[in-house]
Amino acid sequence: MQKPLIIHDPVHKTIVLDEFEQMLLNTRHVQRLRNIQQLGLVDHVYPGAKHTRFEHSIGTMHVASVIGQSLSLEEEDIRRIRIAGLLHDVGHSAFSHAVESVLKRNPQLQPVIEGRKYIEHEAFSKNVIRMLPQDDFIARYTESEFGTDPFHFFDEIAKIATGDACAISKPYLAQIIAGDVDADRIDFLLRDSYHTGVSFGLIDADQIIDSLIIKDGNIVLGSSEGLEYGNEMALTAAESMLISRAHHYTAIIHNPKTQAARVMLLYALEDALEHFRNVTGTEAAKGEIVRFFTEYNDNDLLVFIRLHAAERSLRLLDNLQKGRIYVPVARFSQKVLRPSTRMALATIARHGVAKMKFESRLAREHGDVLVHLDVASGVPKSMRISIEDEESFFYDESALANGLVRSISRQLSLTTFVHPDAVAGMDRTVVSNRMHRVVDELSPRLLGFIRAEQYLPIEGIILLFYAIYNIFKKEEAGFISMPRLRHITWLYRTILQFSDHNLLKNLFEYSFHERYGFPYSDKVFEDIQVLVAMGIVDEDLRYYEKNGRYRQRYEYVLTYDGSEYARRIAGSYASEFKQIESYVLINKHSIPKDMVTMPLARYAPLK
Hints:
single chain, alpha+beta, Hypothetical protein af1432, Arc Repressor Mutant, subunit A, 3 domains, 4-stranded mixed β-sheet, 3-stranded antiparallel β-sheet, 16 strands, 14% strand, globular
């Protein structure tokens, strides 16, 4: 029997690993994480941010066990979530998410494993974990320790580690590792704050963990005693975590200098891969990319770039390693872009090929510059709260949480970077004005390019709002009356019906589950939040009384900019839009709506 391993961690203090955890810790897959920085290139802004995914993985394991003990889980389940926490990042590529960005921009380089395209690190993590029992020693130990088939055991661990809650009998185990309030996020917020010195990310982990309970197989927020004050504290704890996440994105991830370093590495890596593919062929390049996620560390990736990149990219890499980071000369956020442009950019940013074309065109317009379009990811989606034996979404119970979700959703930036030596002779106003003109001209054309290749489900939702708007809208005596949808659940049910319709299923390609007693889709929720954040749909807060308690809900109405945007895109979906309108017309009496009336001059902008 091997002695327990004691690790002294700066964030969680003492962490103890048992014999089996030590065995997994010493695999090459986990040891590789010692040389992959958790925050990639953020140390160019915050020099202390040199912590690794190795220590983060140990921290996630520890937080998972603390959550498990707080929830009074069985000992075997606690062991499983600890193992899942330790292994959750084993498929992470070097330099944080740089390689994933390359794959999204270059579909021809996406590896195919067992018939599936691999783009994100979670897929690689799942694959690596499932292969662990190929080690006979690990397989024998798993059989003797857990009394189960080792391949079945690690298949379940892979699902828990990657948040695949729908695929296991105890969904809450996966939610502990990868949910809205989970061990992964708790550890990285605490750890990133500690190492960067940015106090925005500080959270009361004990209070947050104490606010988690299990109900109907899911992790929800609430008080184990069911007390009103306990529920208030649960809300407060979760709100504090969302505040920390929002500030974490702003201060660390979306810092312009951090973005500049990331885009310098991205361009150099993309160039190196293209030259490597030209010499060795596409399949060899795909195989090398698999190694990026399973074998390479940060230094290996830099060596690969040095071996294969062209001269300009090597200069980028030299500047990066010498700390000569490109500086922003023009930067647009959602605050200075009109809603239709915001919406176009948000859509382009989520489509890798169009994003690369957009950035390349802008870069050509300005000469020797780098252009980067960025949107926030990881929008919180499905956290539930239990109050007096009734469940609802956390974001419906907390106006603060809803605002924070919107804040994260609207984090969009378009930045032009130049070499620090070139700034002195550059007129930033001229660059900004020219960039604004090209953005307005280029973004609608690129959206057309995307539509020619694939359907855009978020535009399907816009067209659904537009069909309702067209059927119920009335203009009279200088006033306009518009429909405001009362229940987001009606949208879920309708979109689910469309996803089974022969003509509409590709436009409304969303996956749903029934874990909450009604059809729900994380992606539909996220896309609606994007529409609200970009100014296409307006979200109103309404209070109502039920069972002696006042509650809140959010209602949705198409904005003027949203109606204009929808009008412009409707022609691209002529037959689909006709079907949507037909459905709305047939079911118009069952649509949960109110009519909102306002002066037309307030609704439509002055010409």
